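Feature request disguised as a bug: please show the residue count (430) next to Phosphatidylserine decarboxylase proenzyme, mitochondrial in the output. Example input:
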Amino acid sequence: MASPRIKFPHVKRYKLFIFWATLILAFTEIHQFGPRYLLECWILPNLFFDTNIMAQSSLKQYLRSLRWTPLPVGVGLALIAFQQYRHTRKREAARLGQADPCDCLADEWEVQAYKLLPLRQFSKAWGWVNGLELPEWSRKSVLGLYVRTFGCDMAEAEVEDLGKYKCLSELFRRSLKDGVRPIDPSAAVVSPADGKVMSFGMVNCGALDQVKGVSYSLRKFLGPNCWNAGGPMVVTKRDDDDCFHRTCLKDGENNALYQCVVYLSPGDYHRFHSCADWKVDFRRHFPGELLSVNPSIAAWVRNLFVLNERASYVGQWKYGFFSMTAVGATNVGSIQVYFDEELKTNDVIRNKSVFHDKHFDDRLVELSRGRAFGEFNLGSTIVLVFEAPKGTVPCVEVGQRVRMGQALFRIPHSYVGMTLDETVHQGTQR
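Example output, currently without the count:
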């Protein structure tokens, strides 16, 4: 079922034209260097004309006399390096508390320019390369280079011998030995994957934390509310995030919304699992972009998770609303969910501004903590948004490394499956 288009802020086209024209022209001529040439090419465009033609009345002849001089490649590289240096300085100042994190965010025209890159095509090409079968004699050296580069722990893999993996994609999606990821029996919500916690905590006024100091809209992230009692979409004020926030709560008096973002790096275990005991009602697929979700990019691009392709699975658990969203990224256009074979990601045919819903009314999808949910092709992000009693205790910190099955949140007076002598718990777990 297709739903209304998602509208994004208008960006002046001339800024994008200037940006990309500068970069394209910067790389068109490499053979011309020298002080005089550099001085002549600092201004874009550099127009040369004959003063005698200016005196002529023929505008046509005057226009024909104009010629464009491209910037040298050095100037283009210097421009890119300067932009990167400026953003690095801002991020460092924000980390030290000397600047507001919002000051480090990219301008709209920069984000639009970033989106113009052929990231979807590049991701498809990368997926094709990953699926190429390697000659048996080269597997240990090629795959071993990847393992050493990203620090993969092959001792935990069900198949430790690199020679048994036919391609890089099989290594990404490797399974683990039984028992190496025990599920915390006391936590109502456990980590769905190995990775790093980018943000966590209570959702306030319909805003989710992308990283510390940078937030995005829950309403834009999940789309229109159609999960209340399985009814039609709840229409709220277009810009009222707080109103949308309240429609997600089953018990607004005693409960609150909580969220947690887990980032999977290229070296992590690439499968993800159910983080709680819950029932999935429907899936909402947003085609979107495939921008990088690396923490440094997440701290630079506003509304990154709203822009990117994602598959949101929404349902109910003991305390009310529950959702788990797999976010795509550069080189991670392929998101596979084991119980949803119809999900097709990184599909250029689909309109990126329209989301698509699928309801699971015909069959029951009940998930328990730790049950296999799906897999990424390289590494990406899982976003959890759920309803729980007020006073729910987080068990992690921002920047902490977690493993699948480790406790994320504990609910007061709820010990899930523990005995009475095991009901005393500490705070953060390492």
